[in-house]
Amino acid sequence: MKVIVDTHILLWWYENNSRLPEKYVVQLQTLEQRNNSVGLCDISLWEIAKLHELKKLQLQISVDSLLDKIYSESWLKILAISPEIALESTRLKNFHKDPADQLIAAAARVSQCPLLTVDKKIIDSQAVAIA
User: Fold this and answer.
1) Are the C-beta atoms of 115 and 104 separated by less than 8 Å?
2) pLDDT for 96
3) Domains in the chain, ordered, with CATH?
């Protein structure tokens, strides 16, 4: 695996959203074309469903279709919340209280991969390497 992707980065990728930084567009295009593994913490699937339920997410396709597409992608490796990731999420210093972000950051640390994110709270925590 080369990188771990944060939920919003993945959403913006699939939606061709202009908020996705160009450096991430290039990086994801390259990884997808080479069929290299990009890690995705399984909590991101829940986050997408939850954002949709709360009407905080407008999609071009149905949420069911999007989650099916994400789950079936050969270049995305869905990372289950392992005991290591669960424990690592409790060891993050100077990190905010969002459990999904904690698990995503912990997955990046356990996998020893940088995280693709624009989340200022995650970046400012310096708890995880940022791609």
Assistant:
1) yes
2) 93
3) 3-125 (3.40.50.1010)
Closest-CA residue to 88 (of 70, 73, 75, 101): 101
Q: Is the CB of residue 48 less than 8 Å from the CB of residue 11?
A: yes
Has residue 60 got a pLDDT over 90?
no
> Is residue 35 over pLDDT 90?
no
Average confidence score pLDDT of the chain: 95
CA distance 34 to 59: 27
Residues 6 or more apart whose Cβ sits within 8 Å of residue 63:
48, 49, 52, 57
The per-residue DSSP string of 72-117 comes to: H-TTEEEEP--HHHHHHHTS-SS--S-HHHHHHHHHHHHHT--EE-
> If 0-12 CB within 10 Å is exposed, 13-18 middle and 19+ buried, where does residue 93 land?
exposed
